[in-house]
Queue: 3 jobs
Job 1
Amino acid sequence: MDWDDMRIFLAVARADSLSAAGRRLGIDASTVGRRVARLEQALGTALFVKTPQGYALAQGGERLMPHAEAAETALAGAEDALSGPGDLGGQLRIGAPDGCANYLLPQVAARLCEAHRGLEIQIVALPRVFNLSKREADMAIAVSQPQAGRLVVQRLTDYSLHLAAHEDYLRAHPPIREREDLRGHRMIGYIPDLIFDRELDYLAETGMELAQLTSNSVSVQMQAVRAGAGLGIVHDFAIPFCPGVRRLLTEQISLSRSFWLIRHADDRRSQRMNRLADALAQGIRAEVARLQTQVAP
C-alpha cells in the first residue's frame, strides 16, 4: 500500500471534498479523485460515499481511518527521530480567532521563522472554532477551554479588555466620566447571532446597551473604534496598533479572558509538535505582556 495514497485518503476524509483536499495537498481535485479510486481498487472496497454535502466515509473508509492515522503518527515519529535536536522545520498551520491572528501571531511567527529557517507557518484567521479532528489546523488557539474531544489543551495566557474610543470621537461627543455618561453614545460590538463563543459576549457582561455598529470580526470592530465610529470593548494588546485610541472607565469596566492552545491528542507523541507548542506558547505569552505594557494606564 502506497503511503502517498493513504495521505490523500486522510485529506479527503478530513476535508469532505476532493477540491478542499487538493488545496491542502497542493494538487488538483481530479488527481485526488483518481488516487482515491486507485486506492479503492487496490483495497477492493469503497472508501467514500458521495453525498450532497461532499464525500462521507463509507464503511470501508471508517475501518481504514484509524490505521491511516496510526501510520501518519508513526511516520511523524520517524521524522522526529531523524531530525536534529535544534531543527524545527516543515509546515505548521495555526488556527486562531482574528484578534489573536492579527495582533499577536504575525510577530510570534516572524520570530519563530527567523529562529528556524526551515519552518513554514500558516496562520488561519477565522471567527469560529476549529475542528482539529478534521485537521483544519495543526494547532488552534481558542478563547475558551473545550470540554470534549481527543485533545491536548494548554492555557497560554490571560489578557485584558477595556472600553475604548478614539480621541477624535471623544472630542466630538459629551465627556465620559461615569457609567451613566455612556447613554446616547454609539457602541461597537459583535453581531449577536454570530457570537461563536460565550466568552466574546462582552457587552452582555458589562451590562451596556446593544451595539449600533457590529461585525463578526474583532479586528473590524477595532478599526471602527480607530475610525472614530464609537465606543467598543477592545483588547489591550491591540491598542498599540491604533494610535489615538485610549481606554475609558478602566476602574469600572475591565474584563479578563484567556487564550488556550489546543492540539490533537495523537500529536503529543511527536517531539516536533511538542517543541513547536512550547515555542508558540512562550511567544504568545511574551507578546501579550510586551504589548499590554505599552498601553497607558
Job 2
Amino acid sequence: MTRRFGLSLEAVLKTLAVAACYYVAGRLGLLGRLTVEGVIVTPIWPPTGVALAALLVYGTVVWPGIAIGSFLLIASLATPQLSTLVTVAGNTVAPLCAFLLLRRAGFRVGISRLRDGLALVFLGGLGAMLISATAGVGLQVVTGRLDTAEFWSVWLAWWVGDAMGVLLVTPLLLVLVGATGPLRLRRWKEMLVLALTTLIVVPLSVLGELSLLFLVFPLLIWVALRFQLAGSMLCALFASVLTTFEASTQQGAFLNLSAIEVMTKLQAFNGACALTALLLSAMVAEQRALRRSVQNACRELAEVLEHLAAGETPPDLPADPRADDSTRAADRPRDV
C-alpha cells in the first residue's frame, strides 16, 4: 500500500513538473513569435521538445502534464473555449505519437547512432508534428478565424515550428538530464575557445545587414566533430534563437523582406542548423563507438594470442574437453 502510494505521488510530481516546464517553454517560445496571414506562429516551439523529452525519460505516465501545460498556456493568452480542447488534444497527441513511433523504431535516447538521429527527424519531428499543425490550423479554418486560401501557408509555418522544437530542444534536454551519457570537460580549453568563437561568429552572421548566415555551418561542423551532441545542439539552438529574434524585428539578414520571405528564410536556416548538428553528431558518435568496439576486440584477441604462444589456456576460453574426459576416465574405479 505504501509503495503504491509512493509511486503515485512520484508520478503526480513528475506530471506537475512537466506541466510547469511546458508552460515556461511556451512563454519563452512566444517571445520570438511572427505573424503569418494574421495568425501568430512561432518559428521554434519549445514545448514540443519538452513534451517529447519528458515522454522519452519518464514514459507515458506524464502525458497529463503535457495536456495541463498546454491548457494553461492557451488560457494565459485568451479565454478558454470549447474549441480549446481540440488544440490541447493536438498538442498532447502529437508528442505521444512521436514517442510511440520512436519506440517502435528502436530509438535510443543517447542518440548514439545515425538511425536514431534520422528517426528523431522524420518520425519524432516531421512526421508526428503533422497532427498538432493540422489540428491547430484546421481549427482556425473551421471557426472562421482563417480563410481557406490561407490554410497552407499558416499550416506550413505551424508544422515547421513544432518540428523545430523537437529537433532543437529534445536532444539538448536529453543531454542535460544525462540520458546521452556523462558530460566530459577534459578539453575545457578548446571548449572555451569554441564558446568565444560562437559568441563572435553567430551575432556577426545574423545581425549584419549582409546575408552571412552560412558562416554558422563551419562552426556547427567543428562543434559536432569535437563535442558531439552536447556542443552541437547548444550551438545550433543559440544560432536559431538569435536568428529568430532578429527575424521578428526584420533587421540584419531579414531587412526589407516580406513576412512570407522572412518565415521561409528563417525556417530554412533553422532546419539546416538542426539537421547539421543532430545528424552529424549522431554519425560521429556511431563511428567512435564502432572504433572503440574494434579496439576492444583487437585487445582481447592479442591477449588470447599471448596465452596461446606461452602454451597456456586463455582465461576466457574453456580447457581442452579431451583432457577433462581423460582425467575423469582415470579417476573412475576399475572393475576387478
Job 3
Amino acid sequence: MSIADQQAALDAVHDDPADLPVMRARFEHNGSPRYMLYAIKRLGLDREHGFHLDVRLVSDELEGGMETVEARLQDGDADLIDIDYISTARERSEGAAIVAIHPYGRTVGGLVALDDTDIEGLTDLPDHRIGVVRRLDKNWILTRAACREYHGFDPDVEATPVEAGSKVGLTELLYDGEVDAILQFWPIVPEITERGPYREVLPMAELVQRLSGTDDRLPISTFLTSESFLAEHPETVRRFRGAYRDVVDRLVAEDDLWEEIGETLMTYDDPAVVRAVRDGWRDMVVRDWNTETIEGMERLFDHLLEVAGADALGVDHVPEGTFRPEVEP
C-alpha cells in the first residue's frame, strides 16, 4: 500500500486540534508504529489525554546517512519519531539534541532465506551474500556481535553484507536472487514467509535476549523527541505516554481492532499474514520502562560494544541524558 493511501486512511481519523497542544509524529510508512498511531487516532486517545497527535508518514530511505524520520526530528520538522537506541546514542554523541522519552519495543528483525537454503543458522553465514538495509543497522550489529561472541568469526569479514538502503529495496534483493538471505524488519517478515517460498531462519529477538543475559523484554527502539520540545512541552510528552500505554492495552486485547488495521494499512489481505503481524507486534511491544529496564539496555549496549567494537556500533558509549524515563517538570 502506498504512502499516499495510508496517509489518506490516517487523515480520515484526524480531527481538528482546536486549542489542544500539538505533537507532530513522523513515522515510516512501512514501520510497525503506524498501527499504534492509527489506533490512537481511531480511538481518539490523544484527545482523551488532552493533546492532538498530528501523524504524517514518510519514506524509509536515508537522507544524508540518516533515516528520514531522524532527519525530520533533527531538522525541527517533527516532535516524535522512533529509532533504535544505538542510533540515538550515535547521533547524540555527535551533538544531536535528541532524547529517548519512552520505550517502544524489540524492533529487530529476522534472518530470511529461501525454503531450501543451506543457511540454517549463524554458523552458515560465511561465504554468503547477506542483504541489510545498511551496515550500521541494528540487525547486522546484533548478528556480528553474536557471531563473534559465540562462534568466533565476524560476518562483516567472512560474509558479504549488501546494503539495500531501504526495507523495500532489501526485499527486492531477496526476490531478485541478488543475495542469499536478508536481515529484514520484523513486520515485513510474515509478508515474505507466508507468501513463500521463504522462511525465517532466525529471529533477531533471540539474539537480543541472549546477548543481554536477561529474560526481561528489552526495548531496542524508543520514542524520541528533541531537547527543546521536552523542555517547552513536558506535559504534552506526559500525555503522549498515557495515550501510548492505553493503546498498547487495547491492541494487546482486541483482535477486531487488528482486523481494521489490516484492511486499512497493510498491503495484503491474507488473514494469516495479518494475524502473524498482530502476534508479532504483541510479542515485540514494551508498554513501559523503569530503572531496571534502562540498566538492561545499557548492559546490552556494553556487551555489543565489547564484542562488536565502536566501529561497528558507530559510537563507544551511551551519552548521559539519552534516556528520560520521567519527563522533567
